[in-house]
User: What shape does this take?
Amino acid sequence: MEQYDIIIIGAGPGGLTAGIYAGRQGTKNLIIDRDLAGGLGREVPAMENYPGFDNISGLELIEKMKVQAIQNCELHEMEEVTQVTKTDDEYQFTVKTDKDSYQSKTIILATGSSHQHLNVKGEDEFKGKGVSYCATCDGFFFAGRDIIMVGGGNSALQEALYLKNLGANVTIVHRRDEFRAQKHLQDMIKEAGINTLLNKTVEEIKGDMLVESVMLKDTKTGDLTEVATNGIFVSIGYIPHTELAKQLDVKLDESGHIIIDKNQKTNVDYVYAIGDVCVGLKQWIVACGEGAVAATSAFTDIQ
Ligand code: NAP
Assistant: This one.
């Protein structure tokens, strides 16, 4: 079985940064991702707060990070880690994937998160037929069409702006009377003339072959209204991927995120965690910083 000093599970911004740092320490390292590198970061339409770039898409930045990562670290894409177990050997972690098995002295969990679903009638049925979780991936098909964007956070408002820019007629539906998103995004929504429906929840998504309408419930009056639409984009947060963390008895907080200390250490020795799977601010720059810290901690701990 191939042996490594550090195995990083997940090749999002944090995982790739950990790989860059790990490689430069002179240790033997591997990043494994069940998909293409980038994770949900690939879906970000535009970032205006990543230092060094006025405006860059998630896909473009990930491609740059990936090129840099593979100069420094082995990367296996499209390989899924199915099990991580701990033994008493020096190479104490056995990482089993759908293709192979490896041993490592340390593990960095960079497993990210996936889209939260509405869990309403019609959502699964019309997925890919008008229901989408990714404006960057599917927005192109909705130019000149009516779209409902569900959510009130930074992602929902950013994606609404992206879709409007593509020429879609966007309405934001949010369950409360104020948005959670940063003020500058709220101002941009107003400036762009994007329609908003507040205090409304989506109760059902309807259609024949494709989405044709949504049933909205007013959270104050309970009234139901049917609103015609060609598409519904859902951007209501994320669920952390903690299956492997649980296999290692890594501690989670009450929201299901991994608890880490300032060195990105979990409660399990030689297991570190970074990025959206952890408690804390969900930002690229944070995930990257955490990746640098985790790789350095792992290196220090195995000296
Ligand atoms: P988020 O901040 O957690 O916001 C989720 C939104 O969805 C909230 O407005 C929430 O409503 C709503 N929501 C949750 N469950 C719902 C349900 N079942 N039905 C209807 N609405 C529901 O998620 P996010 O916008 O995806 O952002 C995730 C993280 O990434 C955040 O930390 C965010 O700051 C960060 N982010 C930052 C940027 C940036 O450039 N600065 C860009 C994108 C994302 P309530 O408000 O009522 O809870």
